[in-house]
Amino acid sequence: MEEKTMYYANFNITFGEKDEPMLSHFEDVIYPAFNDGLVRGSKEDSPVYSFNDVKIKEYEPEKYILIGNYIKDTQFKIHTTILNGELTSTPSELPTAPYSRFIVFLNNHRMILVKNEPLSPDLKSFQRTVRSILSEYTHKTNRESNQKNRLPNAIVNIVDMKLPGDIEQALSEISKIRRVQLKFFPLNGDSDSTPISKVMRERMQDLQANTSNIEFNSPKSKQGVADLVEETSALGLSTFTVNGTDRQGQPITIKEDTFTSNQKVTFGRDILEEDDNIFITIAVKNDIITRVGNESQSIFDQFKENIKRLL
User: Fold this and answer.
1) Contact in structure between 222 and 175 (CB atoms under 8 Å)
2) How far apart are CA 304 and CA 24, in angstroms?
3) Is the Cβ–Cβ distance between 212 and 200 less than 8 Å?
4) Burial status of residue 1 (CB atoms within 10 A of its CB: 0-12, 13-18, 19 or more)
5) Taking a C-beta distance cutoff of 8 angstroms, is the pair 112, 279 a contact?
6) Count of other CB atoms within 10 angstroms of residue 204
7) Would you call 286 helix, strand, or coil by DSSP?
8) 24 pLDDT exceeds 90?
C-alpha cells in the first residue's frame, strides 16, 4: 500500500513595517495572489511551480481553511532504456506534474502539506513559491493602482514545526558543538514568551528590522542546546543552525532544512479534493495544529467575516 508524506508547518506571514498579521491582507493579497495564475520559474528553465484549485472551506462550524494544490510542472528526462535485453540510448522527455496538497488552518495559521508522490514539491519549495507569487502580485497590483492604496510587502517565513523528540534526535549526531545560531523574524500573532526571543523581537521592533540573529560559540551542554532550540524553534517561531563535528571528527551542520518533521500516511491512490477531511482529521489529532493562542484567536475573530465573504 502506498504511503503519503505529510509535513507540519507554521504559515507565518506578516505585512509591511508594522508587521500586520496575515489575515489583515488575506482578502486583498493572499487569496487573490494564490488564484491569479502566477508561477515561479519558466518553461525554458523548468520546473514551473504554481497553485491550482485554491479555495476556502469551512471544515467545522466557524473554522476555516485555505486549501489547494501546489504543482511542479516539469519534464522527466529519459536517457537510456532496455531494448531486446540491451542498454540502449533513447533520449526523450516526458512531461510530468507531481503535486502536493496544502491545507492552512486560518484560525492559527498552522498548515500541513501532503506530497502526492515522492517527486511532489516539498515545504521548502512551497515557501519559495509563496514568497515569489506574493511579491509579484503586490508589485503588479501597486503598479496598476494609485499611491494611496498601495499594498504592503509580505514577509514570508513558512517554517517546519518539529514533532516531540525530533530536535534532540537530530543533535544526537553531533559529538562536539562549535556554534549555535538562532534567527528570529516577525510573528503573525503567535506568543513567544521565551526570554531570549522576547528580547530579540523587542530589539527588532525598535530597529525596524525584519530579522535578527544570535550566536553561541562552543557550548559544552548538548542538552542545553537541545532545550534552547526546542523552546525557540520547535513551533516554527524561529529557525536555527548548529555547526559541529560528528564522532569521526568530520564537520556536520544541523539546520532548519536539514531535516523535516513528517508523518507517513497509508493512502493507496492520488489525493483528491474529497480526501481533504481524511488528512484534516489526522492533523487535528496533533496539538501543534489545534493549539490557538489568545492573540491568534483575537486576530481570527477580527477578520472572520472577511473570510466568510470569500467562501
Assistant:
1) no
2) 10
3) yes
4) exposed
5) yes
6) 17
7) coil
8) yes
Asked whether residue 164 carries a pLDDT value surpassing 70, the answer given is no
Considering the chain, what is the average pLDDT of its residues? 90
Q: What is the pLDDT of residues 138-152, one digit of tens each?
A: 999 999 887 677 899
Identify the CA nearest to 235 among candidates 105, 123, 109, 121.
Answer: 109
Q: Which helix (H) or strand (E) holds 197?
A: helix 195-207
Is residue 271 classed as helix, strand or coil in its secondary structure?
A: coil
Q: Are the CB atoms for 13 and 30 separated by under 8 Å?
A: yes
Model-level pTM?
Answer: 0.89
What are residue 82's DSSP bridge partners? Answer: 87
Helices then strands, counting H and E runs in the chain, come out as: 8, 14
What's the DSSP call for residue 160? E
pLDDT in tens, 95-151: 899 999 999 999 999 999 999 999 999 999 999 999 999 999 999 999 988 767 789
Q: CA quadruple 10, 11, 13, 19: dihedral positive or negative?
A: negative
